[in-house]
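INPUT
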Amino acid sequence: MLSTSGLTLHAGKKRLIADVSLQLHPGEVLAVAGPNGAGKSSLLRALSGELTPVSGDIRLNGRLLADWQPQRIARLRAVLPQHSPLSFRFIVRDVVLMGRSPHRHSHDSGQNLHIVEQAMALTDTTHLAERIYTTLSGGERQRVHLARVLAQIWQASADGTRYLLLDEPTSALDLAHQHAVLAIARHFADREHVGVLAVLHDLNLAALYADRMALLRDGHLMAVGPPEQILASELIRQVFDHPAEIIPHPLYPERPLMIAHRLLDRQ
Amino acid sequence: MSTAPLIKGPTVLWLLACLLVLTCLLSLGSGAVAISPSQVAAIIGRSVGLSLPWTFEPSQQTILLSIRAPRLLLGLLIGAALAMSGGAIQGLFRNPLADPALIGIASGAALAAVAVIVLQASLPTAVTLSFGPLLLPVAAIGGGFAMTWLVYRLAGRDGSIDVATLLLAGIAINALAGSVTGLLVYIADDDQLRSITFWSLGSLGGASWQTVMLAAPFLALNLLLLPLLATALNALLLGEAEAGHLGFAVARIKTAVVGLVALGVGAAVASSGIIGFVGLVVPHLLRLLIGPDHRWLLPGSALLGALLLLGADVLARTLAAPAEIPIGIITGLLGSPFFLWLLFRQRLMG
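OUTPUT
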């Protein structure tokens, strides 16, 4: 389990996250949503060890985050960033291969390359393998980085459950690829028992694929639970300051579907 | 060019190694007294106890062994270390325009070296005695390290590097080092003045076995250890946070890169002054050929850097023979148009 208890984060004097306790279980997809500036990315950066908490602690498989060796934790936890500053002309396969760098001493390079090919096939990037990364579109780059982080935690580890942290993984993607990415997240959770945390803006997309959803606002955890509890019109209005109706999804009645009001109609 | 480069890294390394051997022969053979490649082989054979059929004059043997050989070795090591350091610092700063001379490392090292030359008499004797001939290289390395760290701190913001600040900080530091050097020149005597001019122009003319022995350990450390950081430098190109997620100890790696680069550039400056643009041009050319992967780029840069510097040294010795042009002038003349071309190209490509 990857868990926070009483987590509080500051940037200078500004409070980013206030007293958040949240658990990410093996084999679940947890979607984190909330308005802009709610602290979603900060939470993810704390879970990935980039930000140090002011108070509270973060444990990965029972051990404090700070007590893990960098290379060992990298074999358990992969992080997909919103943007990468990569501006050098690597070919795509080499970018994906970088995901294998935590395993570069313990595995033969043939196996690493094999995993890279599989990760590219899964993310629909095989046809880009020989292309130069900097010539790709935003959506293609995002899928290449997804392949990279999948390759990083591709195999089970003796240190326990693996985790995948995705920061807005669908922001640059078209409809089909958005669903493909979440299907991949589901696949890793169901088949590999990976714990997946994804920051998502599209509540309907989250409700279709996530086991649980968490809503953040002003650094506070407002609610966490299965989609049918979270997509409730009163809660959505509270968190997002916007009115919405909830209906059952016409194809998957157990999943809720949110229909937002037009702002024009709001008196 | 939106697909993989045509030439593979290993192929280029072999090609460069062969070319480097030829350039070494050319460098050993050219100068006021000509020595043919077969004579070079015979002289080297003689000194290791082999008897080869080609004949040579005793004067040729003396020139080769006590003048050209140390000069060749020094040029080889310095060219390799400058180019590899350039490649590494460009990776660290995630910018292909970073260059040890451009961002102030070399002038920091030179400033420290000049300060030692001028102020040597007023330094505590305990200091001069305990360092001995190592005082100059150690000071240069320290100066280089301090400047790199300063520039890095100035240009770094939230884990990313602001390129404009990087280059501006380099300009400011070069200007500062320039004026302090000017001040030292003002109070220097004639002998010191000659050494200072030599340092600011860059030359392999002072090469002797003693300078080689003094600089070689530092340069060798730089050349042997930097390639070990190649995968880490690759990961750093993804961003510092991303490199951390991949399990690299980012803070330690950054310190190691800065330290090793300062070691190489400092030792190079202490023995041959500021030789600009090698660290900028060489890794850049190689990236165009084999791509940015540091596992090939760093060793390739070392080979091409050595090749380029030895070539420039042959030009420096023969263009105005019997006089000698400082090699820093040659690399500057070749390098600055290249740098301008790079700037244009970056603007055109956005």
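end of record. The CA atoms of residues 118 and 192 of chain B lie 6 Å apart.
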